[in-house]
Amino acid sequence: MLRSALLVALVLAGSCKKDPPRGDLPPATDWKASAPSAGARPQPAPPNPHAGMPGGSPHGPTAAQTEPRALDKLPDGRLGMGPFSLAAPAAWTVKPVTSSMRAAQFVLSDKPGAEAELVVTYFGNQGAGTIESNIDRWLSQFQQPDGKPSRDVAKVEKTQFAGQDATVVSVAGRYDTGGMPGGSGPVDKADQALLAAIVGSPTGPYYFKLVGAKATVDASAAAFRSMLGSLKLR
After folding, report:
1. Whether the Cβ atoms of residue 194 and residue 169 lie closer than 8 Å to each other
2. How many helices (DSSP H) and strands (DSSP E) are in the chain?
3. Predicted TM-score (pTM) of this structure
4. Would the pLDDT of 57 be above 70?
5. Number of domains in the chain
6. What gap in Å lies between CA 207 and CA 118, rounded to an integer?
7. Which domain holds residue 119?
């Protein structure tokens, strides 16, 4: 009788067991295996596609203010500008530059109504766009009295200075910058003229832009050409 009672008790106990709910978590060893270990090193962040560009900007180089800088005075009396040396006209005033992208600046005249200034810029080995895009931008700042495109009346010449390829451009008209980004403000003046040159070098192109009253620019054309002709690689 005792053995029969024990057998019945075991059968009843087995029938009372329940399966675990389907929503129960698996054993801890299973889900912990998929989590990162405490000593795992974090994955590095993806690289910045703009790293290494000036200012981290995707838009290319931007000018920065600098302490006033003057051109180097060389023992032979010439001036040093990047890879070049040059002879500046004695009547022109050398002005210190305060922009990281200005290589030189000359005041030809500061008389009211006769102002003219030459600015030389440098943007590194790659320059600042194609030669044609720069010429188009410069010419777009001049309006002709008859409404013609300035490109139709401008003079463009391919030549060489210091053995380097160069392009010289000239035009006259109403000078209207329209408030260019990074500029000192909009300019809108009649009877103005442009004499400009893009000169290549082993370290990238230099941009010479002379703008001012037409009478002053016309009177300075020979001196401008003489200065370009004086360029030498050093």
Report:
1. yes
2. 5, 14
3. 0.72
4. no
5. 1
6. 10
7. 72-233
Helix (H) or strand (E) holding 139: helix 131-140
pLDDT classification of 192: cutoffs 50, 70, 90: very high
First-to-last alpha carbon distance for the chain, in angstroms, is 120
> Which residues does residue 84 pair with via DSSP β-bridges, in sequence order?
81, 233
Instruction: Give the model's confidence band at 178: pLDDT under 50 very low, under 70 low, under 90 confident, else very high.
Output: confident
What is the reported pLDDT for 20?
45
In a domain, 56, yes or no: no
| d(C-alpha 14, C-alpha 51), whole Å | 70
In a domain, 149, yes or no: yes
Question: The tokens of 50 are what?
Answer: 């703009």
Report the distance separating Cα 82 and Cα 199, nearest Å: 12
Query: Where residue 171 sits, what CATH number does that domain have?
Result: 3.40.1000.10
Element (H, E) at 225: helix 214-229
* Residue 142 contacts residue 174 (beta carbons within 8 Å): yes
Tokens 């030389």 correspond to: 120
- Can you point out the beta strands (E) in 31-153? 65-69, 72-73, 79-81, 84-86, 93-94, 97-99, 102-109, 116-122, 142-143
Residue pair 212/227 in contact (Cβ under 8 Å)? The answer is no
Residue 60 phi, psi dihedral angles, 5° rounding = 90, -165
Residue 124 backbone class (left: φ over 0; alpha: ψ -120 to 50; beta: rest): left
Mean pLDDT of the chain: 81
At residue 201, what is the residue type? S
Place of tokens 């675990």: 20
| 145: confidence class by pLDDT, cuts 50, 70, 90 | very high
215 lies in a domain?
Answer: yes
